[in-house]
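Because discrete structure vocabularies remain unfamiliar, it helps to consider an illustrative case, giving the amino acid sequence and backbone structure tokens:
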Amino acid sequence: SLPAKEANLFKVIVKSYETKQYKKGLKAADSILKKFPEHGETLSMKGLTLNCMDRKSEAYELVRRGLKNDLKSHVCWHVYGLLYRSDREYREAIKCYRNALRIDPDNIEILRDLSLLQAQMRDLSGFVETRQQLLTLKPNHRMNWIGFAVSHHLSSNSSKAIEVLEAYEGTLEDDYPPENERYEHGEMLLYKISLLEECGMLDRALQEMHKMESKIVDKLSFREQMACILLKLGRFEEAEKIYRSLLFMNPDNYKYLIAVQKCLGLYSENGQYSADDVERLSALYNSLKKEYSWSSAVKRIPLDFLEGEKFLEAADNYVRPLLTKGVPSLFSDLSPLYEHPGKVTQAILVNSIFFFLFLVCATNHLREIVNLINRQTYWSNYFLS
């Protein structure tokens, strides 16, 4: 152990590392090493600091030297693990963390770092074990409960994750949460509801939503999850009502539009629709176009189910403004249509038709039209390339 003055300097090294004041940390480390040149923990912390300054070879040399001088220091092993982690040598880092925990088995920081790497390396059984140990050591921390639940969820044990979250809720007072923790608590409740949904407990998930609505701050996610559960329960009218209110907020959200189709029984996984379904879908999107004339999604989705002249007209209305503006993502947007050869031929025909119309109109407003044609030609070539 270091004398009081040097012990305080060592704390300065740690704080400087955490606040990224690396030069200050090096200065403090050098002050200690002048008196104690073989102090293992100081050598290790100096090496860790140098690693952050892109001096890796020196960093490894110092950390290994520090570890050699103090093999029974959890700090030296932890620092060695951090060094490996920075180079993405995760398995070696885990070995170092485990050696550190043999010396100091209840070190919260090392356990937390170990759990992150276990999740990264998909060591899910080890992840569960480490998160349980963290919860045992600090049961009053919300994140330890949630981390333990997540570990079970990742291990495909969603029912156990629900039990953990319910056990956590059992530790809370009735007036919880305080104002500054409302959002985080609400996110935890939404997570629990998603687990219930994943386990197929839809009625219970819906009851939980009604019960906890006042405690959930993120109302958008709340409404999305509510609508999704109602849809799965077959309560289509209620789900449609919520999805239409969500569309009012964001009419370009494809998920909302597809969900409305599902509520109306107008969605096909393979993209094949009967003539009657196409007619009903056309009526749906025509009404949505009147309501949300600026929505790109409302104009794009009909291209997936329309055929013949109706497809030609819809493709013209959708593609022409985007080519005029010069939208590079247009090709990737329309690429799914290339799975239907008839639609590809028609789409090329559309480009030819409106390009010809521009040439005819050029006799009146020559300069303006020529500029427009040049731009149109450029983006048409970009699209075709």
Observations:
- Residues 356-360, 362-370 have pLDDT under 50 and may be disordered.
- Residues 306-385 form one domain.
- The two ends are 70 Å apart (CA to CA).
